[in-house]
Amino acid sequence: MTLVVIGVGLIGGSFALALRRAGRVAKVIGVGRSAANLQRAVELGVIDEASHSAAEAVRHADVVLVATPVGQMGRVFAEIAPYLPPHCVVTDGGSTKSDVVALMRSHLPAHLAGCVPAHPIAGSDLSGAAAAQYGLYDNRRIVVTPLPETRPDAALLVRELWQACGARVYEMSAAEHDAVFATVSHLPHLLAFAYVDTIVAKADAARCFDFAATGFRDFTRIAGSHPEMWRDIALANRDALLVELDAFQATLAALRQELVAGDAEAMTTRFERARAARQQWQQHFNRGNA
Ligand SMILES: NC(=O)c1ccc[n+]([C@@H]2O[C@H](COP(=O)([O-])OP(=O)(O)OC[C@H]3O[C@@H](n4cnc5c(N)ncnc54)[C@H](O)[C@@H]3O)[C@@H](O)[C@H]2O)c1
Ligand SMILES: O=C(O)C(=O)C[C@]1(C(=O)O)C=C[C@@H](O)C=C1
Question: Where are the transmembrane segments (predicted)?
């Protein structure tokens, strides 16, 4: 099987590595916008060949994974549309799904039966081919949001490929997916960027950063993530994200009021409720990834 990965970074590169180790791909062709990144991907054995033309690369593909920032996916789909072999399955790794589904519908109308939108719920704040790693998807979840037009064999192949990467596959509607991930992924990234940016604006920012320690590190790790990727995710999932942002602002306003009023009881109740939920989640997450 020939796999073409368009966007050879953490997500696309780790998919290629896992499938190669599982013996599921004979050849991996990588396509990207940075020659240096593609060169690194070849050196690291993430891909067999680099191509600077997505149109040229997909002519020989059995499966195409688009793993660029979601803001790039429209132009990628448009570029490959005329050159996709009829049997070729097109999937993606984007963090948002309603926009990707809409882009597939507008740019790949003749190929919808081969389209299987997907999102691996695994990653990090690292990016580029050098960040690709074996085991990224071990015991992690993958959400697929197939279209009504998706051929069963195309959906099955994508499921099997992710399972071969060690992942567990779940199906949702694109809208449900985007609402859930606005809550547990997109909002926390927005908040982490906003919080660090608030410090940057302070006159004593250097002194604050100098003394910041493990609490700061743990709360802000994701503010080290790729800005373009997160800008695209926020814009693509704007409606769901605004709902979450409003809910969070309401909680913050209530907490602020409790602080102003010195309402220790209300604050204790809130913190205890949050701690219990966090502890429960941690146990659930540990069990799921054991
Ligand atoms: N990082 C995560 O934790 C994570 C997790 C799940 C899903 N995702 C999603 O996966 C996708 C890739 O994320 P990543 O973390 O691998 O990013 P990355 O920056 O590591 O890799 C993306 C690659 O795409 C390339 N690229 C950008 N525009 C391109 C274009 N027009 N044509 C070809 N290549 C192009 C970049 O040069 C880069 O090498 C994004 O859509 C992101 O939302 C990321
Ligand atoms: O671990 C991280 O740094 C991540 O941000 C991974 C994370 C997440 O929010 O959990 C980020 C984006 C995804 O689409 C899926 C996973």
Answer: none
Distance CA 12, CA 262 (A): 50
The pTM of this model reads 0.97
Burial 212-238 (b: 16+ CB within 10 A, else e): eeeeeeeebebbebbeebbebbbebbe
Domain boundaries defined on the chain: 2-172, 176-288
- Whether residue 69 has its Cβ less than 6 Å from ligand 2: no
| pLDDT one-digit tens code per residue, 277-287 | 999 999 999 98
Contact (Cβ atoms closer than 8 angstroms) between residue 162 and residue 82: no
Q: Give, using CA atoms, the residue closest to atom 4 of ligand 2.
A: 124
Nearest atom within ligand 2 for CA of residue 122:
16
Topology alike, domains 2-172 and 176-288: no
- Answer whether 118's CB lies under 8 Å from 158's CB: yes
What distance in angstroms lies between residue 67's CA and the mean position of ligand 1's atoms? 5
List of residues 6+ apart from 136 with CB closer than 8 A: 10, 14, 18, 120, 122, 123
Q: Is the CB of 98 under 6 A from ligand 2?
A: no
Superfamily of domain 2-172: NAD(P)-binding Rossmann-like Domain (3.40.50.720)
Statement: 176-288 belongs to CATH 1.20.1250.20: no
Dig out the tokens for 122 from the structure: 């695994």
Task: Express each pLDDT in 53-109 by its tens digit.
Answer: 999 999 999 999 999 999 999 999 999 999 999 999 999 999 999 999 999 999 999
